[in-house]
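hey so u asked for the seq, here:
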Amino acid sequence: MSTISPKKRMLSAIRREPVDRIPVATYNFHPFGDFPQEPGYLLMLKVLYEAENVGILCKSPVEHKGGRAECLQVDRRVQGDAVLTITRFDTSKGQLQMVHRKPKDQPGYCVESLIKGDDDIEKFLSLPAEPSLPDLSPTKEIYEKLGDKGLVYVDYDDPFYSVARWFGFEDFAVRCIRQLPLIRELVEREFARIKVELKLMLEQAKGYDFLFYTVGPEVATPPLLPPRIFETLITPYQKDLVGMIKKAGHLCSIHCHGKVKTVFDQFLEIGADVLEPMEPPPQGDICLEEALDEAEGRMCLMGYIQDQDLYTSSPQEIREKVEEIFRLAKGRTGYIMTPSATPYMFPPPERFVRNYVEFVRVADTGC
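ran it, structure tokens below
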């Protein structure tokens, strides 16, 4: 029986300290929220808690009050097997509207962007820029319940994504090239707000070893945008925010799916402790050994169990993938094996459950 908890092992890898074996964790699969209410996930939860060497990376909500939300109206409607979420902002220059569609058992997507033209940008700029007041109380409750089984993952905003999310992405990508000063102005405005909110979060986080993370940089990676946009509109702002987090004594992660090879140096420049979820080709564009060599001693990598494989492969194929990763990462630190995404289907497919159980059981043994 191991005397080292999953949480301690994960923290050691993130700090690039020696580990007794490769740390393993689920990616945002945990005994909180909707998962324990769905019978199809109960076997996975049982096996997870029987596995003494498999931890949990648990995303936790941060409640916000005030700020821009004061101008926000949200309505939800059922449309067939989907739910529409209509978000409206009433501004001094007119109303803005965005529509998000979430089909049953599928990821959601935007069907009407908030900003559709130059007039809408003027409306957006007329919104108040006051920071909101974050509340980490729910996060602390999850922290206490999770204990040594894993890490609580706390989200902070990314200035670039806080702008990009309101546009249709094709329009936004073109504007990043043709109207860079305008996009930078919008990013700077969001950056000022986010710094204040992050400072308030860090004050509340004293005494807790949370892992802070942001999701925004992935929308600036190739082939969506060229590396120079990442270098201009992500790196300087994230470097400052990550610096704040580390100065406060916390660890920090950047979430970025897809192809990261051409901007890998920028993640190192930012100074984040973790980059996740590393994805094998063809979704990713860098093999695990190369990424570990590049990041060694400077940044921990997390991931490399491709989410799609859990839905489509056989248990034997999952076993072979886990064993291969253990061989590749043997003798190293600075790596945590996790799936690349949160389970999202309710109920989960039987094949997914079988494969996830196989992943946890094989990973628990350490091969």
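The mean pLDDT is 95. The chain has two domains: 6-64+130-365, 67-114.
lmk if thats what u needed
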